[in-house]
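hiii, so i know i said id send this last week but things got crazy w the move. better late than never?? heres the sequnce for the chain we talked about at the cafe, plus the structure i predicted for it. fair warning i was half asleep when i ran it
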Amino acid sequence: MASSFQCFWGLFFSLSIYFIQATPTSNVYIVYLGLNQSHDPLLTSKHHHQLLSNVFECEEAAKQSILYHYKHSFSGFAAKLNENQANILAKMEGVVSVFRSRTMKLHTTRSWDFMGLTLDESSEVTPLQLAYGDDIVVGVLDSGVWPESKSFQEESCLGPIPSCWKGKCVKGEMFDPKRDCNRKLIGAQYYHKGFEEEFGPVNPRTFDYKSPRDFVGHGTHTASTAVGSVVKNVSSFGFGQGTARGGAPRTRLAVYKVCWNEGLEGICSEADIMAGFDNALHDGVHVISASFGGGPPLRPFFKSQAGIGSFHAMQLGVSVVFSAGNDGPAPSSVGNVAPWSICVAASTIDRSFPTKILLDKTISVMGEGFVTKKVKGKLAPARTFFRDGNCSPENSRNKTAEGMVILCFSNTPSDIGYAEVAVVNIGASGLIYALPVTDQIAETDIIPTVRINQNQGTKLRQYIDSAPKPVVISPSKTTIGKSPAPTIAHFSSRGPNTVSSDILKPDISAPGASIMAAWPPVTPPAPSSSDKRSVNWNFLSGTSMACPHVTGVVALIKSAHPDWSPAAIKSAIMTTAYNRDSTHDSILAGGSRKVADPFDIGAGHLNPLKAMDPGLVYDMQASDYIAYLCDIGYTREQIKAIVLPGTHVSCSKEDQSISNLNYPSITVSNLQSTVTIKRTVRNVGPKKTAVYFVSIVNPCGVKVSIWPRILFFSCFKEEHTYYVTLKPQKKSQGRYDFGEIVWTDGFHYVRSPLVVSVNNAGDSDDSLSYSI
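okay and structure toks below
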């Protein structure tokens, strides 16, 4: 009794002092302890309390500081700490890493047809989509779900919920599990403690639902794209008319709401994301889709939610698919680069929304937009209403623009939101927005808006130089197959990988421009409080939209090949990707007029049908990543703490080589002299007896030799190792060149990108090693 009394007063005084001294500098920290060794959630939580008691007056104070226990798939916790407490914990035995919880940002009817998963005459799904997915659960970590959407209604053909499922639907604001969950939507949970520590209570300020229900819209959109049920006769404002469905429409859905509304933008706390990962893996999901991330500088793998969550997922055989980020076309902007996960770039499809502009009945220009009604007015240059011609609210000259259409120029597509608000504020009727060539992607706007290229914009600008001229904007149309596709979207983040330069990222490209999918009707289709419209389907662009396209295909492959590891599934997707557009020419990189290279597109564009039967795969297990982790600076003790029991851990020098990680692509970022790299492939084709021949495209200035050049597979020999020797034949420094290696049996074409930087023309810095 006395000890309890002392702890109470000790807690009282310590909290008083902590409130006065530490609260101004206290933040949410994540303490990562590696694999959960006890497998008992109660014992794991107790261990967390004991560990945290070392930096508090007593265990009771430690308990009050904790936001989350990560106690299922891995061990750790999120707690309110000051910097001194965090530093003390980081030095304790058994602690793998301690890092501040950051906030991440959230990075269809035609896209599946474009990729070959077409509908038949009865508008049903393809045999591939119909046959596979019923036994697979996809976990979507995002902003929740709008359960009433037809995308998440169960179909009569769905069987009982898979017996392996251990998850649940939880009750919350405007979300009743008995009403909102079914055999399609089988899991729904939410996590908000990390967000609220950073931004305050979810309600009423943020206008979100304290439940799995989605207000932001992003989570509903991505889940619908990945696994949405078949819904006929959908459109958004009459555009994109057709039948909507996800890539794996029979697959089950579990949502983990880790992102919340902050100014009509989705914000996700790492503390909440870690809780979502922990529960999703415990619940029994087979694939995780995560369309969020942070830009450079990137943290080491085990000081980030993405690296930790996806590593433990990989060990459990769960594939994790991330978006690459929307910071392109700048180089080295790619995020989510852990080699045990899939990183997805965004590309266009062959659907466009041409919008005709007729100026003074003389000049006709075709742009892109979602204009529903004819707009008439006078076209005026931006400088008339904005200082320096800069279309933003703060530069307004406070002139009324009633009946005017404003012509604005920008080199940054992301600025269009400011321009729209600015022209709405001055009462204009419409906006014509001139962008660099290849950057015109139609979006849902708050005012009739047409995107044109700067050459067209200059032509219009010269014509209205003396005075505004009459202009008519016709309603937009939907066209298919009229423009070369795919191209890499200008916003898609690019390589090289800034954490580990010898691992190619992004891995793959998929549709991510003007993608239509399900949407909450209470949320405006354009991210503006002035938008009062309501839709059930909406167009969005971003690598967030590309990510669930790959997720859906991963679910199909996992269902068809349940024994394949995440590495084998990733290999199948990467080695079957294509690099030619609809005109059979090279795929272009948006944001420039150059041919897309592996830093733009990864291995190429997603090809779902080919990925189901790749012929050969480059496989890896958790043990295969150990030498890689050693090579980038992790110690044997740190690695032992995170891998499954019984895994042999050795960091001997002869074992260490990033280049020898059995990745489906080969990247050498610092080739100074001749090197030899090995790769191992396994035959997974329908014929156990097969012969594969190799062809090579040499990167400029590099001689590539492969031995052996023929691989013979049989029932007794399903795996083969081959060696790639790279010999520099030029003097160069820091310039990347690209080639490829293709193995073929005449039917399968197993292609690996080859990325090499010859660095022998002067002093060179070795790549930095990263440690926990």
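btw The chain has four domains: 2-100, 105-350+486-606, 354-477, 615-620+662-758. thought thatd interest u
miss u guys!!
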